[in-house]
Amino acid sequence: MRKMLNLLLDEEGATAIEYGLIAALIAAGIVGATSALGDQVVATFSFIEGKMAEATTP
Hints:
Elements: H1 2-9, H2 12-56
């Protein structure tokens, strides 16, 4: 009975779950930011590539 009470009062598992949730939220934020900025980054590099091709064409 005492072991069951200790298991219910133990907060180490709850802390691990909280850290897991925080990590999941951070990962979701990174994925969202990457998705939102991805097209703009591709467009910028395409623009730079075009300008470099114009500058090096004889």
